[in-house]
Design a protein that fits this description.
alpha/beta, elongated, Rossmann fold, about 40% helix
Length: about 450
């Protein structure tokens, strides 16, 4: 029996051991999805704090239940480790590591390359390797496969290799890893078949595609679609402000059309790991083919300009009240990149705070889901969340709504704030808006 036949049997009878590399917002939910189906999982991560928390059955992601994790740890079904010499043990290894951009907005594959090299050091016949980290079309076969085959083992003969894009949506009450359709593309047909069977153990619907490149581009298309449409409504927001038209009213009216339209909403900029970053992975790759991705670049320009527009609106609103932004006290509401989550990766709030500070403002923040700011890529704020009590709110010259958390009592905030700049339309229809709330 060949090693890959043995792997197939393990998948079919559910006896395989799964290794998930990177236990962040993708890897930990994926691990939990397999655990719920009775599959054993070893999680690998370089962060000793995460490993220590998981060893105690603690969760560091809001929507991952700690009690459930603790049960799996106690039973021995789940283990987290930073010992990467154990990568030979799992039958399937899923790579869920970051794929950021460099300062020049070029793909930064250092984590993918380093992880693949670590896997290669212990690679054995009969393993399935799947890359889930979002990247440009061709990464799996041009970067990952050659590193693995330097061992002398061959893809499709000794090991299987596939790409399957993560589709996490933190805070979504209707969809989680288990019921979001899973796109899967292998390097060759056997890899595709094995990867589909593997994910079928834990995920309801599998969508096989013809290649890793098709799977890689699927993820980019999803995020480019959102980026371009968000840029469109952000641009229209600026135009509507000059025309004295309510963009939110227009979007709401357009959304009543039962066909040919879906609503997108403006905001203070883009956040999260996906939409601000992923489109530029395709832009970079397209240059190899002498092709300019104009829509992607333009959308990036529009969305990147939004924090500057918002800060200008804050300046204008203060100026209308005889105040200067320099020396003004500004409270930013929400540093998570979207409502009701504890994830602040690439949050536009950080750029807003930077711009405000650079113009001499005193800046504080409140976020019920993020009590203290830790250093993140590009930003290092040493701040704690300011409690939203009457005396605090009234002490600020301006309250800037950046993230529309459900936990906020907007009527209470409206009652006690001197001035509000609203980027999320959360004060629409409330009593006392006139003269106090400025849209941005």
């Amino acid at each position: 029996m060949s090693a890959l036949n043995d792997l197939e049997n393990k998948i079919e009878n559910g006896s395989l051991l799964v290794g998930v590399i990177g236990l962040g917002y993708v890897g930990l939910p994926l691990s939990l999805t397999f655990l719920r189906k009775g599959v054993r999982v070893i999680g690998f991560d370089l962060d000793p704090v995460k490993i220590a928390k998981l060893a105690l059955g603690e969760s560091y992601i809001k929507h991952i239940p700690a009690a459930e994790l603790a049960d799996y740890v106690k039973s021995g079904q789940f283990e987290a480790t930073d010992d990467f010499s154990r990568l030979a043990a799992p039958d399937a290894l899923v790579i869920c590591v970051p794929t950021p951009l460099t300062k020049s907005r070029e793909p930064d594959l250092q984590y993918v390359e380093a992880t693949t090299g670590t896997i290669a050091a212990t690679l054995r016949p009969g393993q399935l390797i799947v890359l889930e980290s979002t990247t440009y079309p061709g990464t799996t076969v041009e970067v990952v496969q050659p590193i693995l085959e330097e061992t002398g083992l061959k893809c499709g003969v000794d090991f299987a290799l596939a790409f399957s894009p993560e589709r996490e949506d933190p805070g979504n009450a209707s969809f989680s890893t288990g019921n979001i359709p899973k796109v899967v593309g292998g390097v060759e047909p056997l890899s595709t078949a094995l990867a589909c069977k593997f994910y079928g153990l834990a995920i309801e619907k599998i969508v096989p595609v013809s290649s890793t490149q098709a799977a890689e581009l699927t993820k980019l298309l999803e995020n480019i679609f959102r980026s371009v449409n968000i840029a469109l409504v952000n641009e229209l927001k600026v135009l509507c402000q000059r025309m004295d038209v309510d963009i939110w009213e227009v979007i709401g009216a357009a959304a009543t059309k039962p066909f040919g339209y879906m609503p997108f909403y403006p905001g203070p900029g883009l956040g999260g790991h996906c939409i601000p970053i992923d489109p530029f992975y395709l832009t970079s790759k397209a240059r190899e083919y002498d092709f300019a991705t104009k829509f992607i670049e333009l959308a990036g320009e529009v969305n990147t300009s939004m924090p500057y527009y918002v800060v200008q609106r804050v300046m204008d609103a203060l100026n209308d009240r005889g105040k200067s932004l320099k020396g003004a006290k500004v409270l930013v509401l929400g540093v998570a990149y979207k409502k009701d989550i504890d994830d602040c990766r690439e949050s536009p709030s950080f750029k807003l705070m930077e711009l405000l500070l650079n113009k001499g403002a005193e800046v504080a923040y409140n976020d019920p889901h993020i009590p203290r700011l830790s250093p993140v890529r590009k930003y290092s704020y040493d701040l704690e969340s300011t409690p939203l009590i009457e005396e605090n709110i009234s002490s600020f010259d301006c309250v800037l709504v950046a993230t529309d958390h459900s936990a906020y009592d907007y009527q209470f905030i409206l009652r006690h704030a001197a001035l509000i700049v609203d980027t999320r339309n959360v004060f629409s229809g409330l009593d006392g808006v006139t003269g106090k709330v400025v849209m941005a």
